[in-house]
Amino acid sequence: MLLYTAVQQLEERPREAVLLHLVQGFTYVKTAEMMSALLNEDITDGQVKHYVRQGLDRLEELLPPETTFLTDASKGEL
Amino acid sequence: MSTEESAPKSPGPGDEETVIRNRLARYGGEKGFGEIYREGERALSEEPLAPAVPSLPAPFGGYTFVGPQPIGRGGAGDVWLARNRAGIQVAIKRIPLNERMGQAELGALEALKNIRHAHLLPFINIAKRATAGAHHEELLVVMEMADGSLAQELAKKGPIDANVLLKYMQEAAEGLDYLHQSYGHVHRDVKPGNLLLLGGSVKVADFGLAKELTQTVVTHSRVAMSAPYAPPEWLEPGATVGPRSDQYSLAVSYVELRAGRHPLHAHWGNELLMQLAIKNGEFDLSGLERMEAFAVRRALGKNPENRYESCQAFVDAVQDALKQERDVNAEATGCPGSDDQGEDAPEAPELAPAHPQELPESKDVALPRPKGLAMKAIRDLNFGYNDASTYGKEGEQALLNRFFVKDNDVARVCAPQISFLVGEKGTGKTACATFLSGLEGKSAYAVFGKTLNIVANDYVAVQERIKKFQLPESACAEVWKTVLLLFLADHLRKALSEDRWTGELKTASTFIDRFYAGAFRPEVFWALELLTDAPRAAQLAADLGPSSAVY
């Protein structure tokens, strides 16, 4: 499964945290600001870390953990 | 302190950030994660989503499809060219349905079949039939065959001339208002691709389909609702969509057709950033004239209640704004504008209010005179102890300088003609100072020569209004800009002779006065665009030389 596809399957908050922080490269604080604006509630950078971690948990469920992306990243798939 | 503001540290093994970082190692770190994600995204986008040449649909109800391919493809389905028994060409939209599409929804669509309006593309026929594919059934909507869409016009010829576009928008607005007012239907999918051209006139297509089909076909996920033409209210949970949502989409379409690029083009392809931009109203209106952009901004307002009453009102406002812009330009260049503006008519053209009924009588509008002075001379400040006034006393400066200061700055800022901005935390003092500094590139307290006394609304009032209109905290800065510009306008109005107080300045001032009366509605912020040429305003102020205090 493509990492892209797996990310789309995450729940809303972990997905947004992963997309904004890991994909877009925004800092935790900036990500928290953006998520706050998106969700109309205060999100702290600590919560962002929590969501990122949740997202990674779920991604490891979706993507076989024994496979490393480093070897075949150029193909973008496992 | 936030994570990235802190100095680099060596987090312990239990630190959440470290844990995350370690787990990202398999992707090559954060950067690698992003790269791999994008590779996947690209790989998927290159995959064909549907068969390149879909099979020709079977005839139905006397209509024969003309192949080999559909003439259009949208999110909901394909559009095919077809002919009826008499050989007349029609367009048939095929929408795959799931089992949830019931008779009630079909009935609602049937009702729309009866709509007849010069600028709505009517449904000739609507039918449902079983299919052999993954979907159980498909909806077939038979419509008149149009010459093309405004989206195609844009693609072929580039940005559409303002006069031509306004005519198109006028027609589309008439059609949409009729749909709203006579049938209580919201289109929900207004975009250039649904504004069709038929015999030189615009006809709005696909009305009714989106409303009925959102419950059955279109995914309810936020991503699906964040189409580039979708209004911000769609992004809210449990959002209600009304006629002003269509007005928003029409305004987005207008900008795209006029400027040749979508106002959110900077975020194209990034759903999340686009959603944020929609929520924050971060539109690129750079291809529009200033007054025109101002008029459009209102239709793009976050709160539907602050938009125009109707689509027609929106188009009228844009039309007026463009006319004003031309008049002002004509006056500036000495060329006749669209109206007669002879030498005996020093009155600058007044911009027609977008919502006359909501605006106060323009002649009676006085600039608001807030309760307290937010900016005071240092001698008037009460710090609780008298450091400043002590310092100001003759003979004590030298003594204090030995202990506290190393240069003459303190003496300079203690000069009686120098004013200071005071206020509680968060009232926008920094924003004010920054704005003033940017105005002339000089320090904030020397912008207008000797004296600048600024009266501003009190903190509570500002906060209340920010809360009331659900503006972001950053709006504080905008409020301050507005206040400053108002006083600049007032200052210039008093200082300039009547014959110089004409044209753009007068128009801008009138404009701001009117909207300021509505106090901090979003339009006030957009009104600032009229005076974004701040260096020019500052130059005018400088030309006057050191002036007496405004107050």
Descriptive keywords:
heterodimer; A: 78 residues; mainly alpha; B: 3-stranded antiparallel sheet; globular
Brief synopsis:
The complex is a heterodimer of chains A (78) and B (551). Chain A has 78 residues and is mostly helical.
Question: What this model shows, in words?
Answer:
The complex is a heterodimer of chains A (78) and B (551). Chain A has 78 residues and is mostly helical. Helix content of chain A is 67%, strand content 0%. Chain A is built from 5 helices and no strands. Chain A has helices spanning 3-8, 12-23, 28-39, 45-62, 69-72. In chain A, helix 2 (12-23) packs across helix 4. The longest helix of chain A has 18 residues, at 45-62. Chain A is elongated, with a radius of gyration of 13 Å. Chain A starts with a helix and ends in a 6-residue tail after the last helix. The relative contact order of chain B is 0.06. In chain B, strands 1, 2, 3, 4, 5 and 6 form a 6-stranded antiparallel beta sheet that branches. Chain B has a 3-stranded antiparallel beta sheet with strand order 7-8-9. A two-stranded antiparallel ribbon of chain B has the order 10-11. Mean pLDDT of chain B is 63; it is low at 1-13, 47-52, 212-226, 337-388, 437-459, 515-538 and 544-551. Chain B has helices at 16-23, 29-46, 103-112, 150-157, 162-183, 209-213, 222-225, 243-259, 271-280, 290-299, 311-333, 387-392, 396-403, 409-413, 429-440, 459-468, 475-495, 503-517, 522-527, 534-543; strands spanning 64-66, 72-73, 78-83, 89-97, 123-130, 137-144, 148-149, 195-198, 201-204, 375-377, 419-421. Helix content of chain B is 41%, strand content 9%. Chain B is α+β, with helices and mostly antiparallel strands. The longest helix of chain B has 23 residues, at 311-333. Chain B starts with 15 loop residues before the first helix and ends in an 8-residue tail after the last helix. In chain B, helix 5 (162-183) runs antiparallel to helix 11 (311-333). In chain B, a hairpin with a 4-residue loop joins strand 2 (72-73) and strand 3 (78-83). Chain B is built from 20 helices and 11 strands. The interface between A and B is large, with 37 and 39 residues.
